C-alpha cells in the first residue's frame, strides 16, 4: 500500500510541479521521457492502490503481483463483493478502454488519410538523374495532397508518410519547403506518431485525475520541439522560427503530427534570446527521468518475488 501510494503521489507530483518546467524547451527529449514515465507511474501506482484496497479485507497480500493474483482468484471464485468488483472493473476495464477508444479513433482517422495519401503524387529531391544503366528510383520525400487542411502532416505509426498540401507547396519558396520537410521528416524518422499514440492511451484513461489531462498536450508540444530542432540543424533558428510560425497559423492536422499548433511557445524558444541547454539543464531533467524510471524498476523487482507464488497449483484452487 505504501509503495503504491508513493508511486502515485510521485507521478502526480512530477506532472504538477515538473521541476524542469523552465528547462523543458531546452531539452525536449528528456521532457518527453519524464512526462511518459510520470504518467506510467500514476497508472501503476493507482492500480496498486485499487488492488490493495480490495484485498485489505482478506489481510495483507504481500506485493502487488500477489495482490493481483488474490483479486483474480477471488473474482473467479465469487469471493468479491459487488462494490469490489465494480471498482476493479472500472480501473482495469473501463479506464483502459477509454484510452483504447481514443487511440482507435485516431488510428482509424489516420488510416483513412493514409489511403488518400497513397494515391497522391510524390515529392522527390531535386538532384541530378542517375547515370545510364542505374535503376535506382528517386527517394520519396513526401506526397502532395489537395485540400489537406494543414500545410504538412506526418501520418501513420509504423510506416509514417509525410503529406504536404499541394497549394502550400506551390506557393512556398525553396527555403520554406526545406524547413517544413526537415520538420516533418524528423517526425517520420523518430516514429513520433507511436509516442503520441502511447501518450493518448496513458492519458485518456486518467483524464479525470488532476494534472494528468494536460500531459498529452505537453508531450505533443515537445515532440514538435524535437522536430523544430531537427530543422534548426539545417537552417538558422530565426529562419526556422519565422517559417514555422507562419505555418502554425494554419489549421491543426486532424490526425497525425504536423508543423502547426503551439505556435507562440515554439517560435519563442527558437527566436527569443535564451541560453542553450547546459549540463545543469540536462542534469535536472536526467535526474527527474532517472527517478521515475528507478521507481518503476524497483516496483517491478519488488513484485517479481510473488511470481513463484502465483504459479503454485495450491494458490488458486478452482
Automatic annotation (TrEMBL):
Taxonomic superkingdom: Bacteria
Keyword Membrane annotated: yes
TM region positions: 32-54, 88-108
InterPro entries referenced in this protein's UniProt entry, alphabetically: Beta-lactam_resp_regulator
Keywords, alphabetical: Membrane, Transmembrane, Transmembrane helix
Annotated protein name in UniProt: Peptidase M48, Ste24p
Organism: Euzebya pacifica
Lineage summary: Bacteria, Bacillati, Actinomycetota, Nitriliruptoria, Euzebyales
Amino acid at each position: 500500500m505504501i509503495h503504491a501510494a508513493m508511486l502515485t503521489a510521485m507521478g502526480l507530483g512530477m506532472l504538477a510541479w515538473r521541476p524542469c518546467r523552465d528547462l523543458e524547451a531546452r531539452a525536449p527529449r528528456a521532457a518527453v521521457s519524464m512526462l511518459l514515465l510520470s504518467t506510467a507511474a500514476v497508472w501503476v501506482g493507482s492500480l496498486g492502490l485499487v488492488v490493495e484496497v480490495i484485498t485489505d479485507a482478506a489481510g495483507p497480500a504481500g506485493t502487488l503481483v500477489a495482490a493481483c493474483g488474490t483479486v483474480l482468484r477471488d473474482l473467479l471464485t465469487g469471493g468479491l463483493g459487488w462494490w469490489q468488483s465494480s471498482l476493479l472493473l472500472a480501473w482495469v476495464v473501463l479506464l483502459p478502454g477509454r484510452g483504447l477508444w481514443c487511440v482507435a479513433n485516431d488510428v482509424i482517422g489516420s488510416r483513412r488519410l493514409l489511403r488518400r495519401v497513397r494515391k497522391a503524387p510524390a515529392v522527390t529531391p531535386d538532384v541530378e538523374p542517375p547515370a545510364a544503366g542505374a535503376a535506382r528510383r528517386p527517394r520519396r520525400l513526401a506526397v502532395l495532397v489537395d485540400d489537406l487542411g494543414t500545410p504538412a502532416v506526418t501520418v501513420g505509426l509504423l510506416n509514417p508518410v509525410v503529406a504536404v498540401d499541394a497549394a502550400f507547396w506551390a506557393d512556398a519558396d525553396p527555403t520554406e519547403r526545406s524547413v517544413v520537410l526537415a520538420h516533418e521528416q524528423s517526425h517520420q524518422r523518430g516514429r513520433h506518431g507511436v509516442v503520441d499514440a502511447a501518450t493518448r492511451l496513458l492519458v485518456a484513461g486518467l483524464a479525470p485525475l488532476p494534472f494528468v489531462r494536460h500531459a498529452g498536450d505537453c508531450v505533443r508540444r515537445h515532440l514538435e520541439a524535437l522536430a523544430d530542432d531537427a530543422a534548426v540543424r539545417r537552417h538558422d533558428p530565426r529562419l526556422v522560427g519565422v517559417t514555422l510560425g507562419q505555418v502554425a497559423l494554419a489549421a491543426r492536422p486532424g490526425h497525425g503530427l504536423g508543423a502547426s499548433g503551439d505556435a507562440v511557445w515554439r517560435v519563442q524558444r527558437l527566436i527569443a534570446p535564451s541560453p542553450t541547454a547546459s549540463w545543469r539543464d540536462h542534469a535536472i531533467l536526467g535526474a527527474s527521468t532517472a527517478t521515475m524510471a528507478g521507481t518503476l524498476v524497483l516496483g517491478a523487482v519488488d513484485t517479481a518475488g510473488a511470481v513463484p507464488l502465483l504459479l503454485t497449483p495450491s494458490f488458486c484452487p478452482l
